[in-house]
Amino acid sequence: MAATLDLRTFIRDVPDFPKPGILFKDITPLLRSADAFGAGVEQLAAPFASERISCVAAIESRGFIFGSCVARILGAGFVPIRKPGKLPWTKRRNEYILEYGTDALEIHDDAITESDRVLLIDDVLATGGTAAAATALIKEFGATLVGAGFLIELAFLEGRRKLGDVTTQSLIQY
Amino acid sequence: MAATLDLRTFIRDVPDFPKPGILFKDITPLLRSADAFGAGVEQLAAPFASERISCVAAIESRGFIFGSCVARILGAGFVPIRKPGKLPWTKRRNEYILEYGTDALEIHDDAITESDRVLLIDDVLATGGTAAAATALIKEFGATLVGAGFLIELAFLEGRRKLGDVTTQSLIQY
Question: Helices B34-45 and B62-74: crossing angle, nearest 10°?
């Protein structure tokens, strides 16, 4: 049954959020459906089932919801990628440029090693700025970035280009 | 093997985080271990396996990591409980008092109904202020709050008292 579920019907359009002119893709109806949420995380994990993924890294906060479940499905560990000031231990940071100003992502120093095979998961691939910062940070550890998976891809923003040669999949495209 | 795993050995003490005098319980080593993380979410779900849980509600951001996996294990939907300004749709809010000032939690209006049987999940039960605000908000929807589960309980802070008669379990106590 889950295989025939159209995940797109569980995404709600919210106009003018977080600011005027933005059509926000609200994933909470999908999360609320055990069938749709289950199908989503299974489909995010499936292409990487034979890839011996050792850890799944996901970007806070919505990425945590999908990344943790994908880690469980793949039998992998979970690595949270967080905004500055949230992780308590020594960490690596990657600053990146936004439309206005800069932001940064952090990963604990001991969270990823050279021998890791990492899968990056997030809910939405938009302009790709955050995702590209995350992939660059993961690569700094010397690990193998096996791929990146997103529930939603706003394809018209061409964020996929910023990920270069990283194997990238998305379940719903707009 | 997972049954004999001592989850406590995967928690790292970080002194003076987020401010001087606080001994922070860092859960990231547990997340990084597929075995420990798997055992943790299985143990959080187990007491509620026969409780016909319809949705698992979890508090951002670390609560998302555990709550989403517990929802999958129980075959339930997932409801994110968020800080103000994060949820895009119409929502209910509960403000609560902190040591200095106030904070608030929000849940989407259509996320929980009267017929729901809800399990609340978070990573740490400390003073219980946030957890009590979450349980009160869930009850506002008229739903049945079946229980609350936490990876870690700082028992000396007596947060459990603030949850009143809610069935509360924690996997690691300090």
Answer: 60
- Asked if A65 and B80 come within 8 Å (Cβ–Cβ), the reply is yes
pLDDT tens per residue, range B36-88: 999 999 999 999 999 999 999 999 999 999 999 999 999 999 999 999 999 99
Tell me which chain B residue has its CA closest to the CA of residue A88: B17
pTM, rounded to two decimals: 0.97
Mapping DSSP to helix (H, G, I), strand (E, B) and coil, where does residue A57 land? strand
Q: Which domains does chain B have, with CATH numbers?
A: 51-173 (3.40.50.2020)
Nearest to B12 by CA among A76, A113, A55, A89: A89
Distance from CA of A124 to the nearest CA of B (A): 15
Q: Is B80–A108 a contact, with Cβ atoms under 8 angstroms apart?
A: no
Query: Are the CB atoms for B53 and A93 separated by under 8 Å?
Result: no
Measure in Å the smallest separation between the Cα of B66 and chain A Cα atoms: 8
Q: Is the ipTM of this complex over 0.90?
A: yes
Q: Which residue in A has a C-alpha nearest to residue B15's C-alpha? A: A88
